[in-house]
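We keep the chain:
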Amino acid sequence: MPFFKDISKASDDALGDDYTSKVSSKMKTKAGPVGVTCETTRVSKDKISLLSKLSFKWAGPSGFSVDKLQLKDNGSHVLETSLVGAAGNPNLKFTFKGDDSQKGDLGVEYSKGMLGLTAEMDIIELKKVSASALVTKGDLAFGGNGTFKMAGSSVDKFSLGASYSSGPIFAALTTDKFAGANLGLMYKVNGDLSLATSSSHSADKPLDSVTIGCVYNAPVGVVKAKCTSGGVASAVLVKDVAKKVTVTPSLQVKNGDIKNASFGFGVVMG
């Protein structure tokens, strides 16, 4: 985990990845040197319709790449680019993330050895600057991030966190302005089964919310299941049905109401 944003990635991925309540498909291919991805989602409101977005990716010369040029389903555009190895330093990376709704963030990332640093500035509206730092030493990692509002010259938010990973055990603790804390845990029981939890804590609510889940490598595919303290139970199967074709049927039940359970189905090709 070279950067602070990934400090709790292990438990977050176990409880968050692959779950869906939508019916969608994603197709990946290449047009020469350009990677092309088309994502289509079925939307059911007054009537059923399909919404699609198209993304392009291109690795250019001298470390420059277009990481995402996306045409979204509402007609707007997103552009993300990066430049690696600027000033002859392979550990340095510049990024730009913008769209056509007054968003334009210029960022820089630096990672070497046990240190990972990031900084990002809103160069369109000049509203905020954010930065993060992470130090990794053996099984431990600790760091923090913060956002500074340029209008009013005040700290908008900041977080501190630490993680521990050794053998089958992973734990991460992060705070938000010291007003509350989030704890993520994961334990690998064996090569096929992992257990994970996520919980939020504060002085007003010592145990605000809890999510408990598992990941199991079953003969039929990867099975994930989780339940929350709010009474929501979810399950998903990640199954490779052919070469470069993965399906993810999912189920969500709220407060034991099986009759009104919601279903999702995803397909990824390429």
In short: The chain has one domain: 4-269. The CA atoms of residues 28 and 37 lie 4 Å apart. Residues 4-269 form a domain with the Porin fold (CATH 2.40.160.10).
